[in-house]
Amino acid sequence: MLLQHVWGLFAHPEEEWKTIHKERCSIGRCYCTHVLLLAAIPPLAGFIGTTQIGWSFRVGEVVRLTLASAATIAVLYYITVLVAVFTIGKLIHWMGQTYGAEQDLPQSIGLAAYTATPLFLIGIMGLYPVLWLNFLLGLPALAYTVYLLYTGVPIMMGVSKDRGFLFSTAVLAVGLVTLVAVLAATVALWTMGIGPVFTS
Hints:
Elements: H1 6-11, H2 13-23, H3 27-38, H4 41-53, E1 55-58, E2 61-63, H5 67-96, H6 105-115, H7 117-122, H8 131-157, H9 161-191
Antiparallel strand pairs: 1-2
């Protein structure tokens, strides 16, 4: 069933993680029923927000992107998110041996995918690209993502809560490194001329 775990991750996260763990979802099913849909929210909202609404740096001046530029950025953004979920899941699987986890790769990717749910959903704020408002609402989403990670690792990876805390901290560090790498790649692309094009 599509998006069946979204509500449970907010209403009763520990019980929902147990349900997700019992399902032992395949990578393809996890992507088709959760990631492909939710990961599309931030790029689509960003596309609409930057082309139709725009943002302002000064009163009376609205800045928008061209449709072609925004579409290119949205597609690259979407692909990056899909690859990032898989990469972090793969790294979780690889790190699992250090913490005594014996879960397979699909479980690890499922952990990465479902943990990112609040970040996917808050992407709807891209419809109204106001930096301070996006930041203000994004912080609680980020905090809840971290909470989901710390509650999900012991259940999904089958480790004790003590080991789960250390494991979660290592995963969080990997996630931050991945974010920095994506930002660095973005800057590199922009310096090569593959960046936003603004309407006149």
